[in-house]
Design brief:
With 130 residues, the protein is mainly α. It has helices at residues 8-11, 13-26, 34-48, 52-78, 91-104, 121-125. The protein is flat and about 50 Å long. It starts with 7 loop residues before the first helix and ends in a 5-residue tail after the last helix.
């Protein structure tokens, strides 16, 4: 139960940092997270195509995601300690978290998307001929 945890910030500072960066990416923190660039494209596509209800739903969804993500971070890492936690150390624990943390930053925005170029450009810009 997430409400029975707390105080993990001091026990696992690296995991805390990873959660902060990941939470910022989920919340689409502008300009420094990959989450911003992906949500930006989706929301801009809705605006360009005149899909205002989808745009509003996307904004509300992004807002709710940031709320529950940071609520979880505050409870787990800043809340009152209810259980004993042990810091996990070692390369097999820290390296994957480090890779995910780096890719959650703006560095992740430079990775080519697997579906980039699959859809015609006019579909995304709303300037279809014909």
């Amino acid at each position: 139960n997430i409400f029975k945890m707390g105080g993990l910030r001091k026990k696992s500072p690296f995991v805390y940092l990873c959660f902060l960066v990941g939470g910022a990416a989920l919340a689409a923190l502008p300009l420094i997270t990959a989450g911003f660039y992906s949500k930006d494209e989706i929301l801009w596509g809705a605006v360009v195509q005149g899909q205002n209800p989808l745009f509003i739903a996307g904004l509300v969804g992004a807002f709710m995601t940031s709320l529950y993500t940071f609520r979880m971070i505050f409870i787990v890492f800043h809340g009152k300690e209810h259980t004993q936690a042990h810091a996990v150390k070692g390369f097999t624990h820290t390296f994957p978290l480090l890779v995910l943390m780096v890719l959650s930053t703006a560095a992740g925005a430079f990775i080519p998307q697997p579906l980039h170029g699959v859809f015609p450009a006019e579909t995304l810009t709303g300037s279809a001929d014909g």
